[in-house]
User: What shape does this take?
Amino acid sequence: MTRLTPALAILGALLAAVLALVAVEFGKGAGGGLDATVQRIVLDGLDGAACRLHTSREELVLSLAPETGVRRRWSDHTIEVALRAGMLRAVDEADRRGDIPGFATPFVRQLVEKAPLDKLVRGGISLSNLFG
Assistant: This one.
């Protein structure tokens, strides 16, 4: 049995909390599907971060995975700040669109603010761990 690192466990708990909050609203009939909403928020967040870094979303994502061989043009701190800002903006946009319930928005924002994005940026959490 594989043991989860503390950072991965925290990220998993954060994701579970977000999904639980959003699922409550979807259970009431809101939105077009949980998967689609989560994907849209993540993609919007990555787009915002990439825009802030003056690059493409694809280059940014590839730069987060050391095994791709894509050389980073930014410091870890710069990437983390851009990712956090992009994700916060994406949460606000999802709230404005009505994709997530208004009562959940402050909680989701707090999760994004506390998420261990620095571990992802430094390669402590691989993309395959997050999505595989």
The chain has one domain: 6-122. The helical segments are 6-27, 34-52, 57-64, 76-97, 105-114, 117-121, 127-131. The chain has a mean pLDDT of 77. The first helix runs from residue 6 to 27.
